[in-house]
Amino acid sequence: xxxxxxxxxxxxxxxxxxxxxxxxxxxxxxxxxxxxxxxxxxxxxxxxxxxxxxxxxxxxxxxxxxxxxxxxxxxxxxxxxxxxxxxxxxxxxxxxxxxxxxx
Length: 103
What we know:
Elements: H1 2-24, E1 30-31, H2 33-44, E2 47-53, E3 59-64, E4 70-76, E5 82-89
Antiparallel strand pairs: 1-5, 2-3, 3-4, 4-5
């Protein structure tokens, strides 16, 4: 009998948890590449520092502020929008690893 009385409270708590989880899974921010780059430059002084082509023909870019205080990874779909994939702070460049006879 105690379980039946507790069931509405458990269902409410579970619903609250699922609602919070769904809210955390925000839709990606996408738009015209030029506008996205202009916005990131204006707000965070971020500029592209690395670029690559994905297997599906999309372009992935890493942008960062000059001081490395902020960074963003941007994916541009072939013929489509550019979407923010990730962003953060405290970017650190790594020294390239030397290979070959000079290493």
